[in-house]
Protein 1
Amino acid sequence: MTKLLLSVHVLAAILVVGPIAVAASLFPRHARQAASGGGGPRERDAGVAAVLHRICRGYAVVGVAVPVFGIATGAQLGVLTDAWLVVSMALTALAAALLVLAIVPGQRRMIEAAVTAPGTGAGGEAGGGGDAAGGTRSAAARLAMLTGVFNLLWAVVVVLMIVRPGSTTGA
């Protein structure tokens, strides 16, 4: 049973966290380009940004499987109180909170800003577009930084899962 739980946990981590990491990393560039002036490429970038946002949002829901099967595996192995696992669970919770409370809502706000951007472009309404472009760049940079932290948290969790300080397996 332990091998099955561990296999599902690792597969879920790869198939769920991987796409979120990639989609969240690509999102700021496409959202920034969608909010900038232009015609056809701008619409394509807006579509790409919307798809990347849906991937992050949808996979975040399915991502609950990763800690669920991880905790079940840890319980089966009797390691739920080991320091490396407690730290891993805390970092996983932090990464999940970052995704749900900052990254996904930030993406939604950038998509909404891109949808409203055509009316505030070169026509000069409400600040001449310069402030909007600066705000979009700032929001994209903030989102890229948050995504980098999210990815770094998962990298640390993966290292902890492999190294497992105090492990008796010799790894």
Protein 2
Amino acid sequence: MSTNLNASVYAGYRTDFYSLKYSRNKFGQQERKTRHYGLSFGAFSGFGSSPITPWFTNDQITEEYDGLVWSNGLAFSIGIDYLNLGFALGWDRLLDKNSNLWIYQRKPWLGLIIGININ
């Protein structure tokens, strides 16, 4: 978790399913209950920043800074009503002169997707 700004473009496929049920309430009126399910998978690509420190370069640099990172990967999520949960598999590339020293260069990572539909 960090407060660094990251922005990516996601392109993929999503399919949604709905179930409708009607029941009578205690006043005899029909009430509709809707359930929504969704599945999504696709690829993402974008830019962000990551802390670059001696710790993340095996002590081969002495300065500390936030480096520009290009992230790519694949994602899968499941939606139930207003909640989305899923996983992302990605890899990052540091885009500066210390990219060959950065220990996370092109190493795979696994991320958790949590989303809330607010519409």
Protein 3
Amino acid sequence: MIRAAILCLALVGAAVPAVAQTKATSASGGTIRVLDKTSGETTDVRMSRGQTKIIGKLQITLGDCRYPTNDPNSDAFGWLEIYIDQDGASTEAFSGWMIASSPALSAMDHPRYDVWMLRCNNQ
């Protein structure tokens, strides 16, 4: 068991330099998806960089959306700040990078809403 954990850490450590060396380009905006778990309704939201939108009780700001420069159609990652309105007070629900291909890696933990990054937009 310990050997397996050490092997996993070694493999992850070997992959980090390759990922860190990949150049990323900022897009003009991105698309996120919001799921209201209570109603089952999903909403795709197209946003510009720096824009804030209100969906239900969520206030979502897209700080940046980046994609690998050498492969624009591959993985997107976006900086999101999400606040939720609870009884007239706004509390932070999430702040950080979300990765389109791995939404669970950095996910918003909320009982009613799920939010994840879909892609970057260059228009």
